[in-house]
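Internal ticket - ligand job 334, flavin-adenine dinucleotide:
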Amino acid sequence: METKTKDLWVLIETKEDGSAKNVGIELLTPGRELADRQGGALVAVVVGSHTDAAVAEANAHGADRIIVLDSEEYQKFTTDAYTAALYYLVEKYGPTSMLIGATVNGRDMAPRLSSRLKTGLTADCTGVDIDAESGNIIWTRPTFGGNLMACIICPESRPQMGTIRPGVFKKNAECAGHAEIVREEFHMAAADIRTQIREVISEAAGELVDLEGADIIVSGGRGVGSAEGFQCIRELADVLGATVGASRAAVDNGWISHAHQVGQTGKTVGPKLYIACGISGAIQHLAGMSSSDVIVAINKDPDAPIFGVANYGIVGDLMEIVPALTAEIKKMRG
Ligand SMILES: Cc1cc2nc3c(=O)[nH]c(=O)nc-3n(C[C@H](O)[C@H](O)[C@H](O)COP(=O)(O)OP(=O)(O)OC[C@H]3O[C@@H](n4cnc5c(N)ncnc54)[C@H](O)[C@@H]3O)c2cc1C
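stdout (structure tokens):
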């Protein structure tokens, strides 16, 4: 596709009520830096129905321009309608690069769009940078089971496209906002949309674990020892108003559901406080939580790698330390 501008696009995915999903707003943070370095505008593309709140949020987080496609047919995501709409917009405006959240919908739609545009897509990235001279985005993503981080460029075709995990970047502080709002129309005949969403059924029997949005996470690993052992993790989480996370070892042992897993094959999180209990700190776990503001590790092995990323470390048995912490916090809170 012909690049008509140096603009960088961020897709702002919306929920059914039209508000923005966090990841799109988070991606405006690296988007701002990359757009400035390549000398183009930062453009937020909002697709959905009743999107005023999403548009206002994109404006308050630094977009220079917001392209809005607001219509009932975009209230629920369908691959056909979203792909066709974004293809139309990309062809019309010709951005040089495009960041998309690696959500279920983003992962579904982005490969189809990139193939229609005959360009490359780097999926499930955990970082982005730019070679300002060539304008090539440098997409970083784990490879070889998370043991290596690959840097990938797409030098031959445009736009450069990538999906980026939720929780990797933090939202920019809110600003006054001065974005130019461009309203677009694109409609697709209902008969051309080959799928219909009748009902959304939550996979884990109603268990919705918002790890990505959590300010505090208390996570347990193999060191917790059993499903019953997680009781003390839950109690500490309760007094802190935290969400419970877990390592893959705890999930694979069947002590807690996969919805709680943090890491390369789980969720990527960035809370203000992450407390890792009985977690060794394997690279695949660190890939999902090392951007937390403050990390506290509780482990009986003083040489555990988790202490290499922790701001505070407690060496000892979590079965003694975690209940003691819970009791102390309860006491402080009266
Ligand atoms: C492709 C791939 C993807 C992966 N994805 C993920 C992922 O998304 N998330 C993830 O977490 N892992 C992932 N893994 C697995 C990862 O490599 C590790 O095996 C896993 O993170 C280990 O979990 P753990 O730290 O709980 O267990 P361990 O490595 O066994 O560590 C347990 C720790 O608990 C400590 N301990 C034991 N008893 C106590 C006690 N009573 N008090 C205090 N400390 C105690 C031990 O000293 C030890 O450090 C992945 C692996 C692969 C190959």
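Auto-summary: The mean pLDDT is 94. The first strand starts at residue 8 and ends at 13.
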